[in-house]
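Note to self: keep these together.
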Amino acid sequence: MCGINGFTWKDESLIEKMNHSLRHRGPDDQNIYVDDNISLGHCRLSIIDLSFAGRQPKSNEDGSIWIIFNGEIYNFQEIRAILEKNGHKFSSNTDTEVIVHAYEEWGTDCVERFNGMWAFAIYDKSRNIIFFSRDRFGVKPLYFYRHEKGLVFSSEIKGLLQHNITRVPNDKAVYDFLILGFVDHLPETFFQGIDRLMPGESMIYELTRGTMKKFRWYDLDSKMMGTNKISEKEAAKKIRELFIDSVRYRLISDVPVGSCLSGGIDSSAIVYAMRKLNETIEIKTFSLIFPGKKLDESEYINEVVKATKVEGNSVCPTTEDLIRDLNDLIQTQEEPFGSMSIYGQYKVMELAHENDMKVLLDGQGSDEIFAGYFIYYKYYLFESLFHLQTKEIEKTSKAIKNKLNDLILFPVMTILSKMGLSEGPLKNVWLSRMKYLKGLDKNKLANPLKDRGFDLNRALYSDLTRYSIPQLLRYEDKNSMRWSIESRVPFLDYRLVELAMSLPSCYKIRKGTTKYILRKALKDLVSDRILGRRDKIGFATPDVDWLISPAFNEMAKEILKSNKFKSRKYWAQDEVLHLVDEHLGKDCNHRKNYSNVLWRIINVELWLRSFIDSDAIDAA
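Structure:
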């Protein structure tokens, strides 16, 4: 895990400055390569082959191909064996060098052979091009900017901002976030002119002509969703085998590997699998707890820690901690984020850093491929209604219980979307409730309904590729790398994802139970008590409590009453202050909706102050 930087002209001082801004991503070593055409920089977090031979930028034998690479190729040893048989010579034991020789052997198609997470740039002198690639689901980030001198690229936006870039907010991104809570769903970022290479994409930049061509090298075929006719028993068996193998791959490291542990099914399964694969190795886990609160998961965490004989570590952040760390969290994430649960993850990574960890496993992805979120009941219920599956209709309805408030709005909005009428009266009524917004062009808002329909597997595909996983992986990468930690996600091994997404909806939700097939697959690996959990918490934080606390409320009102806040084009200050009063006056059952809205507004304002109003951008 590392940070990469570069641009298409020669400037040693500037590439060093970019490296310095990303030093948190790679505190073990920084290095550059510069010639008349290019400047490449690399910040190293040493995990595989800790010797000097693993230093980047790294080249082939004759120096005609150079690479800067962020990530891990878990099957690099198998690929290396093939390459050595074909005559390639290696000077290190790194996966980085395997990518270089794989590119020599198979060209840009080499990425199809990789199982891992990556964002890299390969400078091919003979062809005078730069080849960029990002992994299938976007675990590792890559940003770029078209400069008057050429192309600038980096693992983080901070790196790009070391250049003389005019900082202007991207209004579409701002409104998509304020209204819908969407982030990372498009190539464009919150900064005008700064884009991201999307998951499963590659790009070739021609240095002579200054042109670039993006192309999708991986696409999870939506037409194959739910078409697998495998038996339930065989599906559970294959899921278990692939999951264990995925964890095994992600334990490959020359430094200790720990795990996040929330006490839910996903992170618990990872810890149980780690112990199954190695009964004697020391394992550390890191958890978020809130003793005495409904969302506290300490009892489940403690059960897993005891059963697997790991060293459990936990943190319990307070409102005062949040206020103290908030500016650093804004700087860390670089773009607005959906809730304060992101701060919980930030504190867990800080805790791991304090315990000298460099690698953690985490459970991202399971909910999106096995239908773990409550919202997925809606899609399964409508599927069941469509197919007249009366028993499933009854069980699913009971699981939803009293949370049916938006089930009428959901199909109506979906039907309108299908008819091309999603900009019609119903949507106008919905938007008219948002009196606190100004300058909104409703025709430019994202519309997720057209991607989802009534089909559970389509909804999962949409969340996996656009609306959920991309943002969760951004949060994960930025929070972990802020504390110089590599986070690995076993549930997003492409083999497991492709199998899960090929299974029919009834394998994912059955008899009112989410993650039905995963629970069967993990039987006798994970305790029955953990597998029997029906609540979904994760690294949740007491957002409402924090927002209504006197200390946070005082800080928020100082921000919202300021002239700077009033001057923004995105909101009407008096309406926002009215929202604050309503939020404080509501009972607990109604505060969550107000909390989400207020947090987005405060978050955008703090982001504007930190990145748009200020020129002082540096690494944490």
